[in-house]
Amino acid sequence: MDDDRSKTLNMEEFKKGIHDYGLQLTEGEINEVFRRFDKDGNGTIDFNEFLLTIRPAMSQSRIDIIDKAFCKMDKTGDGVITVDDLKGVYDVSKHPKYINGEWSRDQVFAIFLNNFDSPNEKDGKVTKEEFQNYYSGVSASIDEDSYFILMMRTAWKL
After folding, report:
1. Cα gap 49→101, rounded to integer Å
2. Helix axes 60-73, 128-139, angle to 10 degrees
3. pLDDT tens across 23-62, in order?
4. Ranges for the EF-hand domain (predicted)?
């Protein structure tokens, strides 16, 4: 659908894609669907907005285990995970780039946090919402709650 290869869909590309896939929607319905995908209201749909919209809702048990992992990392309890929170929680000593001297301890922490940080707002701070967002993506590919919970317990030593 991304005819101009901008890695986003504008309204025209979206409308064309809707019709190309044989969906019979009115102009108003197309506009409403587009608005639901365009989370930031900038007139385009990027890949992250697309994924956020189509992801299934997580069960409460998944949300609870994600919150436990977040709280474990948020040592200061201020609702935001920073490099300082990771000290004593995340062991960098076995990271290959730390071992070979390419990265400092703080660089390893920063790169690790970057995984959870919002793709559109890289600020080195991870909020609970950003952390849940990350795991919502992981969750979408795991069918069973029990497997997801086991994976989280193992990964975060909960």
Report:
1. 37
2. 130
3. 999 999 999 999 999 989 999 999 888 888 888 889 999 9
4. 1-24, 25-60, 61-96
Q: SS3 sequence, 47-66? A: HHHHHHHHCCCCCHHHHHHH
Question: Any idea which residue has 């896939």 for tokens?
Answer: 21
To the question of domain 60-156 being in CATH 1.20.1250.20, the answer is no
Topology alike, domains 8-54 and 60-156: yes
Give SS3 for 45: strand
Give percent of the chain with pLDDT exceeding 70. 99
Put residue 94 in one of left, alpha, beta given phi > 0 → left and psi -120 to 50 → alpha: alpha
Q: What are the domain boundaries of the chain?
A: 8-54, 60-156
| Cβ atoms of residues 117 and 110 within 8 Å | no
Please state, in angstroms and rounded to a whole number, the distance separating the CA atoms of residues 153 and 69: 8
